[in-house]
Amino acid sequence: MDQQDIDILSHALANLRLQADINLAPKFPHFAGKPYPLGRCLEIRDEMFTLITAELKSNTQRLAILKNYMRTERTELKKVWGSLRDEYFQNAILVGDWYIDTANDTVNANKPRVEIKPISQSGFTAISHFEQFVKIARSYWQVDIYRNTAFPAIAPYLPLICVNEQGATWLAAANDDMIKVATESQFLLSEDILKQLPEPTESIVSRWQNTLLTLHEPDELLLKTGSPQAYCKKYRDTEKAADIVFRDKVVRAYMSLPKGA
Fold first, then answer.
1. Domain residues of the chain, as ranges?
2. What is the pTM of this model?
């Protein structure tokens, strides 16, 4: 695609984004006290992906440039999550050699809704280790981050406890990309960050452990005690990194918890 194609496609996607906003704004009017679309990168990207996919399957010519490019290059749309210049967490769409941000205004509402760039010029990269995640999260989310000693048996997969300025706390990083960072490193990268981070206060740990009282039958993984680092070694020695069934069990245990404490 040349620059003229990109300009036309950007305009078409910006118009499609208006439909996404109509669909989403009533559902998500605010995020952490900020008005839509601020903070709604994931929701907008996912809605736009759905709308773009439907448009490509239709007989309209609105996205003909994108459709022709995909046919010529034999490529597909792909949802991605990662780092944007190590400043933000970013949900975007990749197609061939192009990066498409359909939620470009979710940090600064004055920016254009849509941005299209060559991937090589976009500043977008995958997150490859927990230190990178922590660096972004501390500044982007304005949080303190501690090692997950509240639930040590799931810490090899979810090694972080985040606490924001209002005192809200949540476990991280609860997405497939970061769990993959943990498992593909045989939990060595989880162990590294657990060694580096400070212990959470007793109050934070107690708040999380008290959430178990709200569960009818807490998952056994959530009741285990011990060192998070020791569980990294144990899971490495017992080859849990490649065990999809166990991974899913960890995810179910996490999903049974409240989103925050």
1. 3-125, 130-255
2. 0.88
61 three-class SS: coil
Q: What is the pLDDT along the chain (261 residues), one digit of tens a residue?
A: 889 999 999 999 999 999 999 999 999 998 877 899 998 999 999 999 999 999 999 978 899 999 999 999 999 999 999 999 999 999 999 999 999 999 999 989 999 999 999 999 999 999 999 999 999 999 999 999 999 999 999 999 999 999 999 999 999 999 999 999 999 999 999 999 999 999 999 999 999 999 999 998 999 999 999 999 999 999 999 999 999 999 999 999 999 999 888
- The pairing of beta strand 124-125 with beta strand 115-118: unpaired
Which residues touch 178 (CB under 8 Å, ≥6 apart)? 127, 130, 133, 172
How is residue 29 written in tokens? 């009017």
